[in-house]
Amino acid sequence: MKQDEAEWEEYKKVMDDVIKRSGLNRSSFYDLRGNHDNFGVPYTGRSFDFYSTYSINGQLGRRGPVNSVTVQTGRRNILFVEFDSSASLGLRGPTNLFGHPNDRLLTDISSELSQWDPLPAKPVLKISLGHFPLSFSAAAYSGKTLKDVFLMHSLSAYLCGHLHTRFGNNLKRHHESNHHPLYTQQFFQLNGHGLPVETREEEFSLKSTEEFWELEVGDWRKSRTMRILAIDRGWSSFVDVDFRSGAKKTIILPTFPLDSRFILDKSFQRNESLSVDPTLYNDIRALVFSSSPIASVVARIYDSRPGNLIVVFETPMKKTGNALSRGGLYTCPWNFKAFEDPSPLRFLLQIESVDISGRTTLTELRPFSITGQRASLPWSWKEFFVMGCQWDALYYPILSAFYFFILSILLIPKTALSFSEKQHTRKRFIANRGLPNLTTRILVELYIAPQLWYCIFIYLLYLLLCPWFWGQALMEGERGYMTYQGWMLRSDTNEKLKFFGFPDVMVVVLPHLYFVLLPALLVIVAFVVEREIYRESLRAHSGKKDDADVKNKIFASTCGKIYRLMLLRMRVVRKMLLGICLAICWRHFMNCRALSKAYEMNPFIHFPIYSLWVPLVLAYTIRRTS
């Protein structure tokens, strides 16, 4: 994967048109660098760094990795901090997948987030923007992470991209600092809201909780999704607008009451000794944007407790501010205390607008909680896979689990057979037909084929100790080689080789191990076992025929035919294994094809062992077990 300058020229043209139509100053726009903007870039600011040339940040001379903007109002400051955590050396894809914030970048982000801390007269709402989700952001050399910095500075929301909407529309995750022993070292999070409700309540009662929401913003290129974020009296709300079905004539964003799925505990004061400003709760509020004048806006509240939705509140909303504006804030009074309930899902808010042409627009039914109770946010398995797993921490454990499993298969039979003669042990296992002995017998059968055993063992060591392939990891410069630890390349001014692209290389390493090598090894075992069972069946049948009594020749002949038919059917298993071999080789071929294209490699020159070992060993196994 590499960049195309023509796409950047088109991007600049489109953004210039957007700025012109918006009427806003160019300095009001910020565009972040992502991994696709960094593919193959040897060093920032040099050739092939099209981002520095065509992006708005590049054109305005924003060369630093961190930028901040503060919106000051009468009651509070709203601080936006954007940062570039892409790798300093832009490898070609697919091994350019993770954000790589170093310690210096984390220090700069921390400094920007704390710039208003010495002036506590006004509260500060802090929002950060970056490209990479935290699940795909590696830890710095010191072990510190972006999450640590965000929690330390009481961030409210982190808006990120990278995953787009390819894996789901619910790519949102709640982060918090907790003191429960089971969550001190998290490798994954099972759902979007983090700790169970009862655990979260216990943590909150012990001490104040530092927390923030991580919100994936989707993408415009393929999903045509745009997010509108609003800050209303210190509370943040958002709505995602899908333009795949065309332009929207009206967009509605309710700002209060808050969506209970995305509430922060710190947004609601639970300390009874501190007063709460009741004016914050007195009105239902919503932003309405429309291409046509709005005729009416109505707020409805539904009660879901009876088992179906019942309208319990309905009232018109009035626009505040400039009546000539195409968009504005609509409010209506309500008795918020009537909707206090321990369930965050009982009451649902919906806003309806009608423009002068009679066009009606409805918002989704949003659950809300006046008491600050947070509703559950379940993930699909794909959403959990990309948002709930901390992949930089999981890479080595997953890699170690593979080697532990495979080496156990290889070394257990070797150890078992080292205490007695091979044939004696083998016959003993064959004689014992019980199910508990089946697994051990399969492992012993594999070791009886020593050529395969040593071939597999040496290849496993090769993957740990030797380069997998030599490729053009950058757009210019000499080739480097990749191992499971990353790409070995020369730094800019240093002749010493250094590893780059860790843990990004996991997108090559783990699929090869788990989706190619592991199935291949299991098929090899199955071939060996199938052959041995087939041969033993033939031997047993031959013995029965030799010992048969002359008086029972007809009966023995009939049984022999039936038995031979059963043996023929047993070879169907072999045919099934041949089909699996073809599928494995096809998957491996497609992987090699993608790598050859990405890094300009010839499989017979730059990665012969990686590309040829699996098909050759499978072919050898098929021949030896025929």
UniProtKB/TrEMBL annotation:
Residue ranges occupied by any Calcineurin-like phosphoesterase domain in the UniProt entry: 10-165
Spans traversing the lipid bilayer: 394-412, 451-470, 505-529, 572-589, 604-622
TMEM62 Ig-like domain: residues covered: 247-373
One Pfam family cited in the UniProt record for this chain: Metallophos
GO molecular function, one term: hydrolase activity
TMEM62 C-terminal domain location: 396-608
Record keywords: Membrane, Transmembrane, Transmembrane helix
Entries under InterPro entries matching the protein: Calcineurin-like_PHP, Ig_TMM62, Metallo-depent_PP-like, TMEM62_C
Name by which UniProt lists this protein: Uncharacterized protein
Organism listed in the record: Cuscuta campestris
UniProt lineage: Eukaryota, Viridiplantae, Streptophyta, Embryophyta, Tracheophyta
